Amino acid sequence: MLSVEQAQAEILGRARVLPTERVDILAALGRVLAEPIRSTRRIPPWPNSSMDGYAVRAADARPSAILRVVDRVIAGSLPTHAVAAGEAVRIFTGAPMPAGADAVVPQEDVDARDGVIALRGAVEPGAYVRPAGEDVREGDLVLEAGRAIGAAEIGLLATLGRTQVTVGRRPRVAVLSTGNELADLGTEPTPAQIPNANTYSLMAQVVEAGGLPLNLGVAPDRLDAISERIARGLEADVLVSSAGVSVGELDLVREALVNAGAELHLWKVDMRPGKPITFGSIAGRPVFGLPGNPVSAMVTFELFVRPMLRAMQGRRAISRATITATALAPIVNRGSRRGYLRVVLEARRGRWGARLTGEQGSGILRSMVSADGLAVVPGDTSIAIGDNVEVIVLREVSA
User: How many other CB atoms are found less than 10 A from the CB of residue 191?
Assistant: First the structure.
């Protein structure tokens, strides 16, 4: 069996970044920028006021000074009068500064009446003035290729007048579940069946990883049926199946992959849950055979499939963040393989504490529902209360 790190290196060593595509900027949210963005504009294009008040010459702004108001400028209009000695211009937030003025006196710091203002104090040059180019100068590299695009990046692109950008294409991921015992959504399980959960949890994980899922449904434990679904799945960029990868008589996924021309690169990993995992490639296309137990499928997706999907999009951060937490209760891994145990995280005195979600069976899907992270515990190890434990963080947790 390979270690988790060996398996991850094998998988990521075969990741290839997908081609790019051009999309509208709002459709780029959550995607990876595939081009550097340089500004063709100066933002703001001219000095403007950061307050409602009066544009003045700082040299005139002395306590008790009386200034004559000669103009009024609002945001969206241009000044029509330059400020000379002894003059002021009524100005509003965001409006361009008039020529001759180099400071703004907030309206609450003056007494205004009959077209004149009396200043209550002095102001320094540049007070309450946003200089031209304060945010962005023409020619600046404002967004680098490889950056994940969030709401702020969308706003900056709009500020620069960009309607479209080039991003990494989202990987199309075909998801297949196998097993005579599975009843898909919309059908009533027979007395010998259970509902199909893996297809939907795995498709949701694909979406969370930035991919586009394709549902191949449930294939019964027949080689011809599995082979037909695999052939359909090869229209996607990645194929992910669950169940049928162990060594039982009805574990037919590996055979079906080989018959489809797959070169298998690994098939066992020293971990729990999830030892039986197959990874291969068909004409350069990654194919994964994950275990059938719901928790095993989700955990192996997190450790092996998700990083590859993110690498294929050109993302810099492909793995989940890890933290060192304090065990709030004993965390015991009784097996010889490294454990990835589901834990709840709690903020305790400035650091994170971790406790198991409960029973850790690989069929207990509620352990994943409750989990904030995966505690990484060596085989045959018991972590005592107060000891440190490494945790892979699965979701944002409030302190």
Answer: 4
CB 331 within 8 Å of CB 375 = yes
From the list 337, 220, 244, 225, the residue with the least C-alpha distance to 293 is 244
SS3 167: strand
CA distance 142 to 156: 8
Any idea how long the chain is? 399
Scan for tokens 């194929």, then name that residue.
239
pTM comes to 0.88
Strands 66-73 and 116-119: antiparallel
Closest CA relative to residue 129, chosen from 99, 105, 109, 163? 105
Rounded Cα distance, 93 and 129, in Å: 10
What's the pLDDT tens digit per position in 25-42?
999 999 999 999 999 999
Residues 224 and 359 in one domain: no
> Residue 171 gets which letter from DSSP?
P
Residue-wise pLDDT for 361-375, tens only, equals: 898 999 999 999 999
Domain containing 64 — which CATH number?
A: 2.170.190.11
